[in-house]
Amino acid sequence: MSETQLEVQESCRRRWRGARRRLHLLDSDRPGFGVGGLSRFVPELSVRMLVLPNDPEAWIVDFDEAFWGWWLADEEGPVGRRSALWQPNPAVSASAAARTDANGESTFRHFLAIHRHGGIEVALGRSGRYEIGPDSAPAFRLLPIVLRIYDALAVQRSAIDRYGIDGPWEITIAFLGTEGSFLGCLGAGWQEPEHRGGPACREKNILLRRELSVWPASGDTQHLVLSLAAAIDNAWGSRHARCKAREGQFNGNLDQSWLRYVY
Predict the structure, then answer these.
(1) Global pTM?
(2) What is the DSSP string of 114-143?
(3) ∠ CA 187-188-191, rounded to 5°
(4) Tens digits of per-residue pLDDT, 101-141?
(5) Is 260 exposed, middle or buried (0-12, 13-18, 19+ CB in 10 A)?
(6) Per-domain residue ranges for the chain?
């Protein structure tokens, strides 16, 4: 990589860090990590994903009538109808517009949002986490989370095509309150944590960050999703790709049977 390319890369990283700082997605050890922007209205926030384009200060997307027609449409995504994952109840702020499960309520269980800069954001509350065993140990819903990420990344591809958003890109995934937690809702054939399946996480919070010079084409999104899912497993001390089924209909592939348990 040339010196000029390194300077451009570092310039992008400074902009991304500034944007994540404002959204409390910079230092996973700091109090209040992960809670910023629209996610402040998600009780028991458990998971966030944020995609940042080359210029997170840019104003690219207007939240006008044409936008809402596209944004709230019940499109067929890579894992099914979008309304099965994100209800079409709109919410809007100065910097972002969202699909939420709230219908006249002031808080959300989860949302899919797009920022004016064109980057996508996901936030999950109780729909990302549950409790297991007599001690009510926390566990994160691996496949329902991964399937939502898969759909959100497909929406990002659609936004890039619609608005001509420029890369490179940064993907950040944050898990809140992970210390002592497990990963559950695994692919068919993997042992669930309530049956002593898999190690517990040692970190207070998890922050994963991935840079992309080019956003993948629609047909290549699953490769990115599987890579991110593997990194999630690694964060819990597992070297296995437990989002892939070991038996049944989806044997050897991303287990999409968990879609019926997304709520």
Answers:
(1) 0.94
(2) EETTS-EEEEESGGGEEEETTTTEEEEEHH
(3) 85
(4) 986 678 999 999 999 999 999 999 999 999 998 888 999 99
(5) exposed
(6) 3-138+167-197+207-238
